[in-house]
Amino acid sequence: MVKMVLENVGVEPTKALIFFRWVGESRLFKHDERTYNAVAKMLGQEDCFDRFWKVVDEMRSNGYDMEEETFVKVLGWFCKRKMIKDVVDLYEFAMAGANKPFEDCCVFLLRKVAIVLKSLTSVGRLGECNKVLKAMKEGVDDIRKELELNNDVVSHELVLRVLGKLELSPDVAKRSEVWSDDVERKIRELSIEYSSDMVKMVLENVGVEPTKALIFFRWVEESRLFKPDERTYNAVAKMLGQKDCIDRFWKVVDEMRSNGYDMEEETFVKVLGWFCKRKMIKDVVDLYEFAMAGANKPFEDCCVFLLRKVEVGKQLDMGLFFRVLRIFTEKGNFLTNSMLGVVLESLTSVGRLGECSKVLKAMKEGGFVANGHL
C-alpha cells in the first residue's frame, strides 16, 4: 500500500519523501526494502540528488539493498544528465550490495568516463576510473547478504488475493500449474476492478512464471476486464524478456507498438542486460533497432556498447556491425573519432587487428569522416 502511494505521488518527489517520512515517524508502517526503493526511484529522477543519497545510505544502514530496477532507472537518468561522478558513485554503491549490476556495466562506465571527460589522463579523471575498478574488484567476492523476507508486508491486499487464486506467492511460485477453468472461475469470483496499477503489480509478482503472466495478461484483455496500456505491456515484456520466451517477447512488443504504445527505457535496459548475458547478439541488435524506432531512444553511448558486443563475439558479424551503424546514423547521429578509437581497441583486445580495415570501411560507409587529429 505504501509503495503504491509513493509511486502515485512520484510526479512530485518532495511530496513522496514527506509522505515516506511521515509514515515512518508516525510508526504506522516500518519501511522495508520495497518502499525504500520506491522513494529512491522518485528522488533519483529529479533535482533531489542529495536527498536520494541520504535515502539510499539510510536504506543500506537498515539492512536493505538497492533493487536492480532502481539501479537501472537511476543510472539512466544520471547518464542522460552527464552526472559522471554520481554515475560512478551509484555503481560503487550497487556493487557493494547483493544485487550487483551486469558485468558489462563496468566497461560501459569506463567508456562513459573516457568519452564525456575526453581524456583519462586529465586531472581527476584517472581517479574516477580507479574508483570503478575498485568497486568491480569488490564485486568478485562471493559474499552475499542474506535478506529477510517479511511475508506479512504486502504491496496490496487485492494483488495477494489474485496471486492466491493463481496459486502464487509474491516471491515464489508454490507450484507450476497451467491456467484452468477453475483458476479463471476463482479469479472472476473476486469481482475485482482491474486498473493499470493492479494489472501491472500482478504481472510483476507472477513474473516467476512468465507463461502464466502472459496468460493472465491475455485473459484480462479477452474478458474485457481491462484494456492493456503502455505500463502493462511493458510489465509483461520485462517478464518474457528475462526467460526462455523470446518469440512471445517479440510478439508482445510488436503488438504494443502497433497499438500505439512505446517501450519504456527501463524495459529496454533490463531486457538488453539479459540478452547480453546470454550472448544473444542478434536479438540485442534487434532490440536496439526496435527502441531507436520509438520515442524513448537509447542513450548515444549504447551504439558503441553494441558495436563492441558484435566485435568480441565468437565471430565478427559485419552484417550486424553495419546494422548498428545504420540504426544509429539514420536517426541523425554522427560517428566520431572517439567511437572509432573504442571499436578498434576492442578488436585489438580480442586479437582481431586484421579486421580493422573492414571495420573502418563499414564506418566510412556509415558516414564517418576522420578529422586531422586521428
TrEMBL record:
Classification lineage: Eukaryota, Viridiplantae, Streptophyta, Embryophyta, Tracheophyta
One of the GO biological process terms: RNA splicing
Placement of PPR repeats on the sequence: 32-66, 229-263
The keyword Transmembrane helix is assigned to this record: no
UniProt KW Manganese keyword: no
One Pfam family cited in the UniProt record for this chain: PPR
Entry keywords, A to Z: Repeat
InterPro entries linked to this entry: BIR6-like, PPR_rpt, TPR-like_helical_dom_sf
UniProt-recorded name of the protein: Pentatricopeptide repeat-containing protein
